[in-house]
Amino acid sequence: MNEPNRQGEVWVFAEQEDGVLSDVVLELCGKARQLADELGVKAGAVLPGSDIDGLSQKLIAYGIDHVYVVEDTRLAHFQTSSYSRVVCSLIDKHQPQIVLYGATSLGRDLAPRVASETRAGMTADCTDLEIKDVTDPRTKQVHEKLLLQIRPAFGGNIVATIVNYDWWPQMATVREGVMPMQDPDESRSGATIVEDIELDDSLFPVKLIERCVEPRTVNLKGARVIVAGGGGVGSRDSFKLIHELAGAIGGAVGASRAAVDGGFIGKEHQIGQTGTTVRPALYIAAGISGAVQHRAGMEESAKIIAINTDPDAPIFSVAHYGIVGDMKKVLPMLVSALKERR
Amino acid sequence: MPYDIVVLVKQVPDTAHVTVDTMRADGTVNRGALPTIFNPEDLHALESALELRDRYGGTVTALSMGPPKAADVLRECLYRGADHAILLTDRRAAASDTLATSYILAQAVKAIGKYDFVFAGRQAIDGDTAQVGPQCAEKLGVTQLTYLEELVHVKDNVVRVRRNLGNGWEIVEAPLPVLLTVMDTANKPRPPAARKVLRFKHARVEAEVAAEVKSDSKESSKEEQATEVSRRCEVLRDQGLSIEQWNLDDIGADLERCGLSGSPTKVFRVQSIVLTKEGYTEIAPTEEGARQLIQELVIDRTLG
């Protein structure tokens, strides 16, 4: 259990796989930079792994001041015990005030283990972070410049703001795709600090037998426009209408869980709590009822158009434009309206 | 070789069916207005535990923390074939965050004694944090294997599993004991067995017996009621229908680490985001409507 250290840095856990940093890490670098500036402290990154040359420079370009590198061939593949020991040792040594992780499979496995060992507070799946003074309603004590950890809870029905007064560091996992990725500045300078951490063999209990990781082939997160279909599309055949509109408008194809479960399209297109979180400039939802799990993954979109036969479908509650009608008729109309413009 | 297996289960409000009635005006949730269910992924954890036992032998102990009403999910475990059930119930555990909860559950697992496997659902639908499993593993000092999709086999005290990584999978091995968190894609939970339902629908924790005695014999003195509670509990135990009830003292918990005082995270603010239907611009489902919509998107530069 660590006392608050208000001079402590703002850290990002630099998740990487086979020498490639995950996108959410780069998103978090920008956020850490912003939080660190507000607090008047440095931004740091923890980078464990093997063969990770060049990643440190990239983290610095994305806004980090100090990169703490722990290189060991046994750290080539993530496993909880050893990675947790690396992060806990560095927290102990440098006393950061904030540690952020991507809410990836890896981050959601590692972060709670670190929180348990350091006995620090931990908030999962944040969608926003802010620095604010907070008054404890019980003691009336004012805590200056706390990290507000904002996340959907209760199945996405509420947004809860969580704070952590005095069991630091303040730690959170942050959902992928919710923080805008800043442009890298290759001219930024920062320091790479090589850390030597004793890792006993007992910290590597897990033996990797086989691994199969498919690179993401669908770039939903980078898309400016997304056309998504749901269970209401009805069949794989009708789903062609979604592809056609996406083609005409220059957007990517997304789907709700119902459409994926229905076999209309592959899981890599799924948007929502269990799929990808997106925030494009325009999101067109056709035949999607808008269960909270789906809304959680798209409601940050700048403009939302909902097309559904049911006027009471919850998707309309987040829509800017609503069309109550059959998507099978409406989508071709939109396609021809788009073509008329050219 | 038989294994001692513990499965962590939780009773949760059915958050998938929140309506206007369940949200209070101040944006907080009226939990009382929501039906409670067996946390969905915990049912898959139970199934994994039962499959393991059916394959290699051993015992499955279901453990839950919650109010006396949470005995419902433990009865569900017994209907499906769990061998023992324990409810950790204590007002002093209220308001525990994930850190305090995992401390209490780990203390309870230690109190059970010997274990080779601990199973838990990946996450619970009321919080969706997925933190209690890993935090429990840390408190127990055991290896955690999250996102279980298939338990391939156990050989010479080493378990081989397939984990779901979101963008792929991996097969790994680890020596026992381990804590596994289970995905809903891991298996298909078995239905309750009719014979076991008939038998275990009478299973009770002591707190439930006490509530029943209180309503059955309003006239009796406290002492008489207490005697009656012990008598009925004795009968249930003899029939194998007693669900064990533990409190924080029974598991040797440090009270400072439980409940509010053991919880670093505090809820600062809660806002309702559901069913706050703001107006949207309605577009007619016609060619003219489609044209008008595209036009508007061009004017406001959404479409370049």
TrEMBL record, chain A:
Q: Which SUPFAM superfamilies match?
A: Adenine nucleotide alpha hydrolases-like, DHS-like NAD/FAD-binding domain
Taxonomic lineage: Bacteria, Pseudomonadati, Planctomycetota, Planctomycetia, Pirellulales
Q: Does the keyword ATP-binding apply?
A: no
Known cofactor(s): FAD
Q: Which residues form the Electron transfer flavoprotein alpha/beta-subunit N-terminal domain?
A: 10-208
What superkingdom heads the lineage?
Bacteria
Q: What family is this protein classified in?
A: Belongs to the ETF alpha-subunit/FixB family.
Cofactor, how bound (note): Binds 1 FAD per dimer.
Gene Ontology BP term (one): fatty acid beta-oxidation using acyl-CoA dehydrogenase
The source organism is Novipirellula herctigrandis
An MF annotation (GO) of this entry: electron transfer activity
| Alphabetical list of InterPro entries matching this protein | DHS-like_NAD/FAD-binding_dom (IPR029035), ETF_a/b_N (IPR014730), ETF_a/FixB (IPR001308), ETF_alpha_N (IPR033947), ETF_asu_C (IPR014731), ETF_asu_C_CS (IPR018206), Rossmann-like_a/b/a_fold (IPR014729)
Q: Where is the signal peptide?
A: none
The record's keywords, sorted A to Z, are: Electron transport, FAD, Flavoprotein, Transport
User: Where, by residue number, does FAD bind?
Assistant: 256-257, 270-274, 287-294, 308
Q: Which PANTHER family match?
A: ELECTRON TRANSFER FLAVOPROTEIN ALPHA, ELECTRON TRANSFER FLAVOPROTEIN SUBUNIT ALPHA, MITOCHONDRIAL
- Protein name in UniProt: Acryloyl-CoA reductase electron transfer subunit beta
UniProtKB/TrEMBL annotation, chain B:
Which Gene Ontology molecular-function terms are recorded? electron transfer activity
SMART domains attached here?
ETF (SM00893)
| Domain of life (superkingdom) | Bacteria
Q: Does the keyword Transmembrane apply?
A: no
Residue span(s) of domain Electron transfer flavoprotein alpha/beta-subunit N-terminal: 26-217
The keyword Electron transport appears for this protein: yes
List, alphabetically, the CDD domains matched. ETF_beta
UniProtKB keywords: Electron transport, Transport
Q: Which InterPro entries match?
A: ETF_a/b_N, ETF_b, ETF_beta_N, Rossmann-like_a/b/a_fold
Q: What is this protein called?
A: Acryloyl-CoA reductase electron transfer subunit gamma
Quick one: which gene encodes this?
Answer: acrB
